[in-house]
Amino acid sequence: MTAETVTAPTDVEDVLDTTDPVAAATAYVAAGALSHGTDRRVGLELELHLVNLATPARRPSWAEVQALMADLPSMPSGSTVTLEPGAQVELSTPPRDDVSAAVAALRADREVLRRALGEAGYGAAPLGADPAREVRRCNPAPRYAAMEQHFEARGCGSPARAMMSATAALQVNLDAGPAASWSARVELIRSLVPMFVAASATSPYLGGRASGWHSMRQETWHGIDHGRSDPIPVGEPTVAWALYALNAPVMLLRGDEGMTPVQTLVSFGDWLREPDRLGRRASQADLDYHLTTLFPPVRPRGYVEIRCIDALPDRWWPALAGLAVTLVDDPEAADLAADLCAPVAHAWEAAARHGLADPALRRAVTGCAEVAARLGPHDLRSELEAFAELVASGRTPADEIRSRAESRGPLRVLEEEAHA
Fold it and tell me: What is the helix (H) or strand (E) element at residue 298, kind and residue range?
């Protein structure tokens, strides 16, 4: 959920300046949804909860965070370092030729980040949710303030604040591939999402409490505006994304005086049809920015973002990256995964609530982990085999974290992962 800066080209006519702006917007979004190519590159993004090791129960102030970020060295593999609303630190690698190279790049930059933060007395915990600290936004960016106000007006302020400021993800980005295979590729990824959610969860606690959900990170997403967080409907993926985007509520307006939250329910399509609903005509720049405020679990950005995987401790995130890419990009593994996940392809909520306690999800997760351990890249074989052994025992990283939190307390878990 990095605050992307999007501006419309200044040397071309606004594509929405037409007598049928809805049709123009639909065509524009569909045209930019996926990019044809034969590459199978991989990019990874890992979010981590920033922790002051001297006072771990206290969320760092924004002034502390800014001073800390100013002193960070450049990342040797070229990852960018950005900040989320709760001062979660995000490492985002450039695209690499395959998952092994992407994992190696993220590992190298994660180690540099670890050392730099440690020298300043900080750590960073890769967990799906902050298990202990009070939910509080400390990043004052106008985007995030406007988001909070929009969600509050929509009646989902509490889960939205938790989603923004106390959750973290491992995002896997994949090339779209040849245009002829887009529908099958996107539908495969979509069908794997419940399995990914059940397998990857590391958020049985959030803000010092346990709700009983297997993934409290997913619980927060389930609690916000469904028009921007639900899965994109089944269909030809570029058109389905365009229709999803135009049906989604407008979150905020950008103007000369900053960000203004939209506190009434107005879809982008409604705005195009009735400009007076929001006081002015929608522009191409507005549409570009609107796309950055939509958070489905699988999102097209020219490439394909898999956004449903919890951030995981360092001993597990390489395995989940290897699992995801193997099951999508290896043809034999993809066919096997499609069969394994077909019975649970729509079990989004069950995966988040119950994880492997659901027998069908357990079969899908253990089967997919075995496939990835057998067919995944040699460089990640030991990580994939260890993960397959874990889930074969009926456990996931969430179960490990829950056991530690119950015996030592959630704050201790946060400290341990920040020190790791």
Answer: strand 298-300
Question: What's the rounded Cα separation, in Å, for the pair 179 and 378?
Answer: 29
Residues in the chain predicted with pLDDT less than 50, given as ranges, are 1-12
Closest CA to 171 of 187, 188, 189: 189
Which pair of tokens denotes residue 41?
Answer: 């590159």
pLDDT at 116: 98
Q: Tell me, what's the pLDDT at 48?
A: 98
CATH number, residue 171: 3.30.590.20
Residue 106 falls inside a structural domain = yes
- Strands of 53-146 (E only): list them: 80-83, 89-92, 122-125
Candidates 51, 147, 43; CA nearest to 92 is 43
What domain range is 88 assigned to?
Answer: 42-193+201-233+297-313
Instruction: Spell 383-407 as b/e; 16+ CB within 10 A means b.
Output: bbbebbebbeeeebbbbbbbebbee
- Whether pTM > 0.90 for this model: the answer is yes
pLDDT of residue 210: 98
Q: Using the structure block, give the residue that is written with the tokens 């990170």.
A: 217
Domain count, the chain: 1
Burial class (CB in 10 A: 0-12, 13-18, 19+), 98: middle
The count of other CB atoms within 10 Å of the CB of residue 375 is 18
